[in-house]
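Summary of Year 1 activities. Much of the first year was spent building the evaluation harness for sequence design. The harness presents a backbone, in tokenized form, and records the residue chosen at every position. We chose the following record to illustrate the format because it has been used consistently in internal testing since the harness was completed.
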């Protein structure tokens, strides 16, 4: 496996976590009529989860 492939996967994992949070928040905003709040919360939660996973994967790849 090429060296860049594992880092590409980590970047995709980060992007997927953030986008999942945004889409989930947008869905909840549409359902409950609270337009910016759930989207902002979902994006923040997705960023936190994605960044935590990113740091965890980077730490494991360095070993």
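For this record, the design step produced the sequence shown next.
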């Amino acid at each position: 496996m090429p060296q860049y492939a594992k880092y590409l996967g980590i970047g995709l994992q980060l992007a997927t976590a953030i986008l999942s949070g945004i889409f989930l928040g947008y869905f909840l905003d549409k359902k409950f009529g609270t337009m910016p709040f759930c989207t902002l919360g979902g994006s923040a939660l997705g960023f936190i989860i994605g960044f935590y996973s990113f740091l965890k994967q980077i730490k494991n790849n360095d070993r």
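DSSP finds two helices and no strands in the chain. Quantitative recovery figures across the full test set are reported in Table 2.
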